[in-house]
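Table S4 entry, glutaryl-CoA dehydrogenase (ETF).
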Amino acid sequence: MSAPPSASAPAKAPALDLDVEHLFTAEELNWRDRVRQFTARHITPVADADFEDRHFRSELVRGLGELGVLGMHIEGYGCAGAGAVSYGLACMELEAGDTSWRTFVSVQGSLAMSAIAKWGSPEQKERWLPDMASGRTVGCFALTEPDGGSDPAAMRTFARRDGGDWVINGAKRWIGLGSVADVAVVWAATEEGVRGFLVPTGTPGFTARDITNKLSLRASVQCDVVLDDCRVPADAVLPLATGLRGPFSCLNEARYGIVWGVLGPARECLRAAVERSRDRRVFGKPLAAFQLTQQKIADMAVEYQKGLLLALHIGRLKDAGGLTPAQISVGKLNNVRESLEIARTVRTVLGGDGVTSDFPVMRHMANLESVRTYEGTDEVHALVIGQTLTGHRAFA
């Protein structure tokens, strides 16, 4: 970090991260800048209003497709085939605007599209992936159930064979995009183990109902899904996925995006704290001139910078093909936890104004509470790390 300016030096815009620009390639920085511009133009100006109104701005979906971020890590089928670090930077910039839009990209690309790309047949890939990459088709990923998202092995949704078809019965909860999706990747227990099914959402017996009483992710769509004798043909099965390895591989893609994504809100909250503390005067001097304020800002800046370097390290491991699930858990556990703590601390710097929409902090804080829960709670990731370190499985 550069030395602080002298008392007579003109104030400059605060530098929120270490000198990391040289650690990224030109292609990675191009992705970052393009997504940053999209966010600044289409997401940030309406984020507070959409959060207040519980409004999912569906017209942005095609724009995200044109931007190339839907399934951007996938090769072929109209997808960008971008590297892991490029995808991470895109997630960070989207979530700097609002978590709902990084969530959309995660559900569409890291979950639904990844399931088809990893485990689908050539025909399934050709049918679905190009339109999903362009934003003409929206997908959802139906894994979590009402009785426990952290225990998918206890899945109650069941698919049985009936002649040449499959008939699915069960319920799912907290399914992102369920009511706006055109196709659902539904995971169900079968006599052969857990299988994935591509279920067009217009199929009789498939019902999605929005969860409307959320105090977080209000500009996003999460649903309860019911499958009542939902009949699909034999070719709806993802042929290469049997067991929980299929959905878990997709969850790891989404968790990786979160490692980067949550740094966006952390950065924007930290920026608000620095700028407001410089402008606001109390007891005859700027709030920024008080030692306790500087201690808070310094601690937050250190944690943000550490999180960014951790994300970059994990991204390089992923690009090299050497990333493990436990390493993803380290990133998800640390960066979500620290980003949420940054948001909470910034709120104290802003005082009473911090609870208003004059600043994005309370919105980011509320959204991060959801991110702390989905794609694995803190407790689940701690146990993944603990098992890796000790060799003992502590899951129930």
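The two ends are 45 Å apart (CA to CA).
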